[in-house]
Amino acid sequence: MLRQFIEFSIIGIASGGMYVLSALGFVIIFKATRVFNFAMGEMMMVSAFLFLTASKTFGLHWGLALLATLGLSAVLAFLMERFVLRRMIGRPVVVLVMVTLGLGSILRGLAGLIWGHEIFQLPDFLPRAPIFMGDVLIPGKLAWSFLGVAVIAVGFIAYYRYSRAGIAIRATSADLVTAEVLGINVRGVFTMAWVLAGLLAAGAGIAAASVNGVSPQLGFVALNVLAVIMLAGLSSVGGVVIAGIFIGWLETIVGAYLGASWQSFLPYVVVLAVMLIKPNGLFGEARVERI
User: Span of the secretion signal (predicted)?
Assistant: First the structure.
């Protein structure tokens, strides 16, 4: 019984890794631009399809296909910010939300037209052999996928905390006007945040599709990330890492012991209970503006 619980826990933690990358993409855009990007899931889905096309259609080695996917995903995010979101600067929040929802619908529709609506399996670039920790069995693809996600997440957090671009994003998030007065290129920061989110979406999309396959419906997986963001708070990069792993673990444990019908909503009940006590999330901070 204990061995089974440990196995489910490890699987849940590994599954939460995809939530972490996607949530980091949400948070980095919100911190820099105050835009909540509802197209994040579709950016993940398109990235997975790009990897599939590069590796299967063009026959590239998975490493080259990954590099090509990262580059194209960054370009897609750049184009979305430069030609759509930048024109919306200063518009009401509800307009920006509708714009990102519209972008997501467009990407999902284009993916259906180009690749079809069936589920495609990515090439087996991850080892399938299970990993044993004593008597505990861990699926190989899930373990290696989590390892890749962990490397990307650690690299991103280090870049965000210590690079000049990361410092500029944090300064813009703290006070946009002051950042601009100090000479920070605020529009460049907006673009950088979207490009970083595009790279994170590529990592999350490939990680998710390597285990479950890819279809235009993959984008809806990002809706589960909303629970992660609400639990952690939109202002905490480190918080979404903890919250993503926790939500992945909770979904798996609930699904294993209570069934799929409980799995679909119980994590949101837990998140709602937390938000009733801490409206800004466990790690979020209340934003105070002085007039």
Answer: none
C-alpha span between 250 and 229 (Å, rounded) = 15
CA distance 238 to 219: 24
Residue 52: Cβ-neighbour burial (10 angstroms; 0-12, 13-18, 19+): buried
166: nearest Cα among 176, 174, 158: 158
How far apart CA 250 and CA 143 sit, in angstroms, is 18
Tokens describing residue 245: 């792993």
- The yes-or-no verdict on residue 287 having pLDDT over 60 is no
The beta strand positions in the chain, using DSSP E, are 131-133, 136-138
Q: Is the pLDDT of residue 159 over 50?
A: yes
- Beta-carbon count within 10 A of 22 CB: 30
Q: Which residue type, as a one-letter code, is found at position 239?
A: G
**Burial environment of residue 46 by CB neighbours within 10 A (0 to 12, 13 to 18, 19 or more):** buried
174 pLDDT band (50/70/90 cuts)? confident
Per residue in 71-95, pLDDT (tens digit) is 999 999 999 999 999 888 888 888 9
Q: Which residues contact 243 (CB under 8 A, 6 or more apart)?
A: 23, 228, 229, 231, 232, 281, 282, 283
Spelled out in words, what is the top-level CATH class assigned to the domain 2-277? mainly alpha
Task: Assess contact for 91 and 105: CB atoms under 8 A.
Answer: no
Tens-digit pLDDT profile for residues 47-68:
999 999 999 999 999 999 999 9
Q: How far apart are CA 86 and CA 123, in angstroms?
A: 37
Spell out the domain ranges in the chain.
2-277
Structure-token match 């714009």, residue found: 99
